[in-house]
Each structure stands twice: as C-alpha cells, then as structure tokens.
Amino acid sequence: MTGAGQYLRLERVTKSFRHTAVIEDLDFAIDRHEFVSLLGPSGCGKTTMLRMIAGLLPVDRGRIELDGVDITATPPHRRDVGVVFQNYALFPHLNVAENVAFGLEARKLPRDDIRRAVPAALDLVRMSEYAARPVHALSGGQQQRVAVARALAVQPKLLLLDEPLSALDRKLRETMQIELRRILRAQGITAIFVTHDQDEALVMSDRIAVMNAGRIEQIGSPSQIYRKPASAFVLEFVGMSSRFAGRIESANQAMAVIGTALGPLRARAEFTTGSPVIAAVRPEHVSIGEPGPQDNGVTMTVEDIVFLGPRTQLYLGGAGDARMLVEIGSTDHPPALGTQVRLRWPVAETLVFPA
Asked: Of 203, 236, 269, which one is at a domain's C-terminal end?
C-alpha cells in the first residue's frame, strides 16, 4: 500500500473553457483502495475533474500521476482507468455478456481469458442469470450493474463513476448505494464518485471532497465534513442547519459571544471583537426546554410542522428574519402552531464562520 494520498495525485491542475477557468491550480490526492466522492453543485468542476483524470479532457496546465506514473499526456485507452457514466453508455445491439466483454476484447485478451472474466464480473454484480438478455430489456438498476461489471471486468487501477445512480428512483438508488459500496470494498477498488447528492456521498464514501467554483473547499471523512465543516459553504451544502447573522461582541480564551437578533450566543471560537460572523447549529442538537449553564438558548415561534416518519421537523421563526429548524422524535408531541417555545443546544455544538 502506498503512503497517504500517493496513489492518485493531481498537482496544480488547471482547465479553462473559452478563457474562463473552470478548475485552477487544483491539488488533490487519494490513497490506494480509497472510495472518495467529489460532492458539489452543478458547475463546480467535479465532472470536468473526473474527465481530466480519465483522459477525456486534456489538462491545460498541471500534472496527473497514477500509481507512480505520470499519465497527464497518456491517451484514455492506455490509462488503465475504468469509467461508469451517468447514462451507463451500454451498447443496445449487444446483450449483457457482450457488453461486459467489450472492454476485454478491445484490449485483445485471449478468448479463454474473456470467457472466464465475463461470468466472474457478472457474478460480482449478481447479474449472472441475465448474461444472454438484451440490455434494452433490463431495468435501470440492472443496467447500472452491467455498466459496473463492464468497468470492473478489465480490472482497472482506478474506477471513475459519474453520477451513475442519478437516474434511479429513490428506493432503488438507496439500495444500489449500499450494493455498489459492497462491491468496491470487496474488490479493494480505488474509486472516485461524482455526485451532487449529499446523502449519497455520506453513505458511500471513505472521504468526501466538497467542491465549489473549481476548488476543493474541504476534504475529509463523512463525519468530519458533517460535524466540522471548514466553511459556511460546506455547512450549507452538506446537511441541514440553522444560521444566524451576528457580530462578535467579546472574545477571550477561545470563547466568543455573538450578538444576534435573537440575543447573545456563545461559541468556542477565536475571532476579533467586532467581526461579522455566521453562527449555526445542526437541527439534531436543538431541543425544547430551558437552557442550562453550558447551553445557548433562544425563544422562537412554531411556524410549521412536518412529519417525516421516524422524525418530525419543526420550523420556527423569531426576531427579524431569524429562522430555525428543530428535529424531534416521531413519538414526541410537537407544540402547536403559533406557540412560542424556548430552545436550547450545547455551546460546544455552535459553529461559527466569517460572514
């Protein structure tokens, strides 16, 4: 196993379209056997980055290295990189087995090797019984499995997946998330997965790289990304939160007091007095009740109640345009609409970012 971040490395990679930089001086690295998701809104550069790694787009400037070899100028078919596209890109005139065999035949492998590799790849994705079936007779989830089998059959050094689950309905997508993760981990595949779905990234990834405007805002484990977002953008894009505009009223010994429309809030943060900031809290940390010595507390009015099965969401409003989201258990009795309630959450769970 290589050292941390040494298996795939992008160094100062830049890509522009019509003189507009989509990605500029980007550094990125992952280790062997890692499953890393590129997460971000449309247009942030994640698919452009994936296509440069695959060799489908040339790099304007910078360097891409895979397993110790510079592949920056290597053509796509010589990079030993497998790609699963959003639309699967299966050949409609070929059956399932022929689709899986296509990449092996393109590499001019011996027929006996292909005969062994195709059933093994289909067995991996639990599609053996569909080998002779035409691809147009398959469901979306089955086509997705065939696309993965085709990519894995050639045993690539790196597997790239460009939003391959986006066309599936929610229930099937959630099933395929777990199934795809199982397959890749069982095979020890190094993979990069492009998605704009935060839940998908949290479920599937060893690490997540959150992208914004052609740069990586933060890279870390799903837990780090959710619990300790490095910027207000990451906070907003990954998970739900309540946010309050304010200004630092006092700060000492890594404890700051923030003046907001709802009153003072405390946070473990180091800021200069007078700095404009955004204070935030995740909804699962907020509860109804009087705050204790280590809590922040605000008073707000219940404006909406949404039942979501295992949990209920309360939407509350306060002074100015302050809004707050609270999650309670489905068996808890929510307060009535229009009720004023006292809310509390630990000071330690208050996040603060520059405004």
From this structure: 236
